[in-house]
């Protein structure tokens, strides 16, 4: 079970990074900096603390925030409907 949870975490973090970097690399770097300065965490840490991600996304990506979340869900496919990950969004 632990191995499966680690795979889900890796899938989510990878999707987050791919979608965010495809938007604009400078904004991704700004998001990383924002997470570090506000919460002393990384994008990977947002799996355990999803409450950190959305405010940082809204601050950095403003109007694009909801679009980004939808793109992440599309990249995750069926995983985005599983318990835990559905709550993440």
Stated plainly, the CATH topology is called Non-ribosomal Peptide Synthetase Peptidyl Carrier Protein, Chain A
Radius of gyration: 12 Å
Number of strands: 0
In whole angstroms, how far apart are the ends? Answer: 22 Å
Q: What CATH architecture would you give?
A: Orthogonal Bundle
Q: How many domains comprise the coordinates?
A: 1
What features would you describe in this structure?
This protein is mostly helical. It has one domain: Non-ribosomal Peptide Synthetase Peptidyl Carrier Protein, Chain A (Orthogonal Bundle). Helices cover 73% and strands 0% of the residues. The chain has helices spanning 2-23, 25-39, 50-61, 65-76, 85-88. The longest helix is centred in the first third of the chain and has 22 residues, at 2-23. It is globular.
Q: Could you name the key traits of this structure?
A:
89 residues; mainly alpha; Non-ribosomal Peptide Synthetase Peptidyl Carrier Protein, Chain A; 5 helices; 0% strand; globular
Question: Secondary-structure blueprint of this entry?
Answer:
Elements: H1 2-23, H2 25-39, H3 50-61, H4 65-76, H5 85-88
Summarize the structure.
With 89 residues, the chain is an all-alpha fold. The chain is built from 5 helices and no strands.
